[in-house]
Design the sequence.
């Protein structure tokens, strides 16, 4: 009995099954019993986690930026405080030396005033000596009137007629002579004066007591100026410029130049207006 059962089992184990000999095995269908809401919740959870992570990163960035801005602001405040302190110190130093600036301005004003006061100064004694020396022996000076022209810019330009050239120094003289035939020797003698510009004999009259009385005018230029120690100490270039300005005022060249510039400006304005 036992032998028969054992033999049957062995046969069953050795006999081929229908799965190995016959038709192929059928596939097993799988059914997902989870509801769709579970999958949706999973996706939503993933999105929430990603958003939370992004929010944390954003907060970190904002915090870092705020920290950096605070550092920059503190550095700027420190720099501003340092500059304000430096400005106050400089203001204090400037207040200490404000008197020095005022003194410098006063010195410059004094120099300008000295130059303006001395550029027309002349050695009158030298001029009078020269005038006496150049006159012919037969002629004797009796009166002399000296005027310095062009010192004021408001003064009108000197008028010239004939051979009378304007000068910055005008000497009106009266002389007497026992004999007087022609003014030529007198005029030639006056031309030897320093800075000579022109000379005229205005009138000649004869009298029994004085002989001939001669009236005339001598015009001298800026070369006749100076000769004093104070003028010699001035800057030569500045002195020459001021003398040229004085000559322009006397001759009217400055006024003519101003009128020409004004006419040119008016012409320019008219052309631009068209």
Sequence:
């Amino acid at each position: 009995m036992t032998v028969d059962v054992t033999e049957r089992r062995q046969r069953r184990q050795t006999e081929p099954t229908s799965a190995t000999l016959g038709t192929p095995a059928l596939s097993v269908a799988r059914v997902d019993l989870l509801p769709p809401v579970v999958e949706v919740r999973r996706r939503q959870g993933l999105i929430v986690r990603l958003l939370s992570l992004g929010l944390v990163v954003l907060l970190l960035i904002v915090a870092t930026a705020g920290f950096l801005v605070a550092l920059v602001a503190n550095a700027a405040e420190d720099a501003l405080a340092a500059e304000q302190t430096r400005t106050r110190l400089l203001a204090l130093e400037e207040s200490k030396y404000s008197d020095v600036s005022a003194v410098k301005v006063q010195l410059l004003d004094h120099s300008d005033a000295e130059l303006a006061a001395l550029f027309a100064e002349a050695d009158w004694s030298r001029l009078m000596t020269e005038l006496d020396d150049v006159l012919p022996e037969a002629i004797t000076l009796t009166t002399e009137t000296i005027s310095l022209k062009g010192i004021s810019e408001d003064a009108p330009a000197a008028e010239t007629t004939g051979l009378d050239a304007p000068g910055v120094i005008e000497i009106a003289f009266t002389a007497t002579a026992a004999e007087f035939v022609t003014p030529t020797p007198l005029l030639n003698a006056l031309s030897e004066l320093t800075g000579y510009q022109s000379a005229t004999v205005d009138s000649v009259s004869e009298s029994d007591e004085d002989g001939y009385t001669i009236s005339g005018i001598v015009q001298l230029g800026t070369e006749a100026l100076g000769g004093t120690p104070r003028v010699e100490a001035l800057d030569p270039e500045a002195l020459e410029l001021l003398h040229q300005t004085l000559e322009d005022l006397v001759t009217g060249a400055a006024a003519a130049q101003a009128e020409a510039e004004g006419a040119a400006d008016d012409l320019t304005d008219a052309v631009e207006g068209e």
